[in-house]
Design brief:
106 residues, alpha+beta, Deoxyribonuclease I, Chain A, two-stranded antiparallel ribbon, 6 strands
Length: 106
């Protein structure tokens, strides 16, 4: 794939799957870069933090932080998804072997 077609492919995919770049959406005026090259004097936001639009309300935080990699930064998303179904009491286990042994003993 040609380099100049890559952004279009990403944008089309985002549109088809109803995704947004949460970092750019939540912090449009913050200039944090995910690729830094001091040797080439280049800064770029080449990484996308894609989230489905219906999950935006669960994004607690997204950020771009320095990393140990020489030229790429760490990108991360913290989600806060509430527990929809509460768990029932007790402990459940699958007793297939026990049932098989009981059938064999009959």
């Amino acid at each position: 794939m040609e380099t100049n077609k890559f952004p279009n492919a990403v944008l089309i995919t985002m549109d088809v799957f109803d995704l947004i770049d949460i970092q750019r959406e939540k912090y449009p005026n913050v200039n944090k870069y995910s690729y830094l090259s001091n040797a080439l004097d280049v800064k770029s936001r080449i990484d996308f933090l894609l989230v489905a639009k219906n999950l935006i309300k669960y994004v607690k935080k997204s950020d771009i932080q320095p990393s140990i990699a020489p030229d790429h930064c760490t990108v991360y998303i913290i989600l806060s998804i509430p527990e929809i179904n509460s768990r029932g009491p007790g402990f459940w286990k699958f007793n297939l072997i026990t049932r098989y042994l009981l059938v064999m003993n009959i």
